[in-house]
Specification:
Elements: E1 4-6, H1 10-20, H2 26-44, E2 50-56, E3 61-67, E4 72-78, H3 85-91, E5 96-97, E6 99-104, E7 111-117, E8 126-130, E9 133-134, H4 138-149, E10 155-162, H5 164-173, E11 178-184, E12 187-188, E13 194-195, H6 201-206
Parallel strand pairs: 1-11, 4-5, 4-6, 4-8, 8-10, 9-10, 10-11
Antiparallel strand pairs: 2-3, 6-7, 12-13
Helix pairs in contact: 1-2, 2-3
The protein binds 1-O-pyrophosphono-5-O-phosphono-alpha-D-ribofuranose and uracil.
Length: 209
Amino acid sequence: MSRVVVMDHPLIKHKMTMIRDKNTGSKEFRELVTEISTLMAYEVTRDFPLEDIEIETPITKMYSPVIAGKKVGLIPILRAGLGMVDGMLNLIPAAKVGHVGLYRDPVTLQPVEYYCKLPQDIAERDLIVLDPMLATGGSAIAAIQFLKNSGANNIKLVCLIAAPEGVKAVQEAAPDVDIYLGAIDEKLNDHAYIVPGLGDAGDRLFGTK
Ligand code: PRP
Ligand code: URA
């Protein structure tokens, strides 16, 4: 069964409160999502292996650790996942970015795929799937399945807010994928929106409502 890691850092909790507030406008919302994503990148990369290399300080030679040849791929689920890319790149600047375009049909709630473009060497990369909202889990599961069908074998999922229903669905569909969350909320409402949540993440990021 996959691990579920819920962030407990005060800075993340503070910024999460700000993005939930309906009076926070798109500019501030985008900046906060970037900042939270940078803070989450710190946690998501915690298990990256290290190797010692020899360097020379101004005083003497020493062996000192560096990240051991990790190749990372960031995979935002369009649209809203785009809001998390810059924050992650702040800490993992050499990552390649692949895009998975999905939207949730408002009636069936099923994910509909409309665009996908991945780095060629996806099988060799540690992939970090980005989406602010994990509601029913349908979009995340479809994205993970698409990545696996494309050869990926090492995937993590990073979301800002999840419903318990979505976490359970992803764990059942992809028990090998660890899930990193800013918060787990109470439930889904009748329209499969997360309660209390933050509303429609894409609309709030891009000002489309
Ligand atoms: C939102 C969100 C997730 C999805 C979550 O995207 O960004 O991708 O819904 O819902 P689920 O867990 O029930 O699948 P949306 O479909 O609204 O598209 P958008 O990002 O283009 O706004
Ligand atoms: N998508 C969103 O943007 N918000 C939700 O609460 C659920 C799905």
